[in-house]
Amino acid sequence: MDITRSTAADLAASIAAGEVSSVEVTRAHLDRIGAVDDKVHAFLSVDEDGALAQAAAVDARIAAGEQVGPLAGVPLALKDVLTQRGVPTTAGSRILEGWRPPYDATVTRRLLEAGVVILGKTNMDEFAMGSSTENSAYGPTYNPWDLSRVPGGSGGGSAAALAAFEAPLAIGTDTGGSIRQPAAFTGTVGVKPTYGGVSRYGQIALASSLDQPGPCARTVLDTALLHEVIGGHDPKDQTSLAAPVPAVVEAARHGDVKGLRIGVVRELGGEGYAPEAEANFHATVERLASLGAEVVEVSCPNFEYALAAYYLILPSEASSNLARFDAMRYGLRVGDDGTRSTEQVMALSREAGFGAEVKRRIIIGTYALSAGYRDAYYGSAQKVRTLVQQDFTAAFAKADVLVSPTTPTAAFGIGERLDDPMAMYLNDLCTIPTNLAGNSAASFPSGLTSDGLPLGFHVMAPHLADDRLYLVGAALERSLQDSWGGPLLDRVADLTAPATTATEVAR
Predict the structure, then answer these.
(1) Coil/strand/helix, residue 474
(2) SS3 of 193, please?
(3) Where are the domains of the chain?
(4) Strand 261-265 and strand 401-405: pairing?
(5) pTM (two decimals)
(6) HAMAP family from the xrefs (predicted)?
(7) pLDDT tens figures, 1-32
(8) Given this model, what pLDDT does residue 503 score?
(9) d(CA 76, CA 84)
């Protein structure tokens, strides 16, 4: 049994049966992190002692004859935007350097109660502002498929940890595509649940009306099992839905698309999309049709304006949320030498603690909310948001799910778009509409480019119909693995081999 390449479902079954201990499984993944993370930089911190203690506790419960959950004893990588009591939590920012939260996020608590072992916290764009994990104050994460390329963002650390076999499970958060875009770039599975379907309590807020934690893994079933663990109503989150978790695990095991109406969104393609990405998308749609799905074309004309609306709504909410980081209560404090006023210390600390992209969005958001401009900018963006929601309603009257490429291109090079914010923002063309509308969406691996880089297939479902995502994903996964002769991730290069590229040698 190759522990680090096994699925979470298989590992959990072996642990429960006593064939392998959780401590052994956890130790294998910690050793893998030690062997390859200097190249990948998926983790910001690794809690070795805590992880082994959690694993030992699971083993003790099993030895005592206790029934454990379906993922008990399986390791996981946690995005560093979710709090974990006593563990450094930075949101990828210097402004929170050294902060150890006194409480667990609800997602964290549910993981620990389910016996999932948290290995550590993963790298991310600062405060989840970015599409490449290059905006982290602690350095970029590198794509395990090609270390000269980005793993996507903002949750590139979680996706890269999966693709590098450092963890079989991960948690991300998705504000405009931060789970799905990294999944596409790394050949992994990433799901954005219905807004309110997974609690945001303990997630360091970027844009409160858009943020959504969600599950990430290497297989559709593993992702569904994780979704079931973290989902469900939470009274600590006022936006949490008082509804049961959709039957995602059953859907992942079933995976039948016969008779399912799949809507191809006319507006999510064409100019700006790489020819290989479009060709792969259309081939994937044809594959689903061959499995019995009914394919229809739908139009969502207001999706054209979603990107512009999003980049007014998000900065506006970020400007408000990030005002709390004032250097007075926790985190970085600069210039407090007794000669400066409180306001001067705040200004110096925020100048030193926030990166360029965060400052850019705070400025945009503050301007959009300022007197005389709020209605013209933020108010107009909210009207567009309503139109996007109406487009979804109309489209879902004709189709059970909607589909598109996850991203217009495969992973781009490190540094390639860092100085061009607009080019970076365009990565999220396909993913942003679902955040504006609040419905569920996912990215599933669908193939490789001629350069050997992964491509993702994007599936969108109505509110609280998250199970439909898993129906499509499971059917696609089985069909493609039959064609590929195994999982796509079997083709990732050996990261323990000596450096072979100039980029690797330079690092």
Answers:
(1) helix
(2) coil
(3) 3-305+384-506
(4) parallel
(5) 0.96
(6) GatA
(7) 799 999 999 999 999 999 999 999 999 999 99
(8) 46
(9) 13
Provide φ and ψ at 231, rounded to 5°. Answer: -80, 170
- Please state the φ and ψ torsions of residue 371, each to the nearest 5 degrees: -60, 130
Mean pLDDT along residues 64-80: 97
CB 414 within 8 A of CB 434: no
User: Which tens digit of pLDDT belongs to each residue from 95-144?
Assistant: 999 899 999 999 999 999 999 999 999 999 999 999 999 999 999 999 99
Q: What are the start-end ranges of the E strands in 362-453?
A: 401-405, 440-448
**Residue 414: strand, helix, or coil:** coil
493 vs 216, more confident: 216
Whether the bond between 154 and the residue before it is cis, its omega within 30 degrees of 0, is yes
CA distance 434 to 428: 11
Task: Give the architecture-level CATH label for domain 3-305+384-506.
Answer: Alpha-Beta Complex (3.90)
Integer CA distances (angstroms), 376 to 37, 176, 312, 384, 483, in order? 47, 22, 11, 12, 52
- The full length of the chain comes to 507
| 174 and 432 Cβ atoms separated by less than 8 Å | no
pLDDT tens digits for range 280-315 = 999 999 999 999 999 999 999 999 999 999 999 999
Q: What is the largest CA-CA distance in the chain?
A: 73
Tens of pLDDT, residues 158-186: 999 999 999 999 999 999 999 999 999 99
299 burial type by CB count under 10 A (0-12 exposed, 13-18 middle, 19+ buried): middle
Average pLDDT along the chain: 96
Query: Please, which pLDDT band fits residue 499 given cuts at 50, 70 and 90?
Result: low
Continuous segment of H or E residues that includes residue 405: strand 401-405
C-alpha 131/C-alpha 432 separation (Å) is 12
Residue 457, number of CB atoms within 10 A of its CB: 26
The helix (run of H) or strand (run of E) holding residue 49 is helix 48-63
Q: How far apart are CA 429 and CA 407, in angstroms?
A: 7
Model confidence band, residue 498 (pLDDT cutoffs 50, 70, 90):
low
Strand residue runs (E) in 89-174: 117-122, 169-173
- Give the tokens for residue 341: 């006023």
The rounded distance, in Å, linking the Cα atoms of 117 and 108 is 10
Nearest partner of 11 among 80, 50, 68, 64, judged by Cα: 68
pLDDT per residue as tens digits for the range 147-160: 999 999 999 999 99
Question: Known catalytic residues?
Answer: 79, 154, 178
Q: Does residue 104 sit in helix, strand or coil?
A: coil
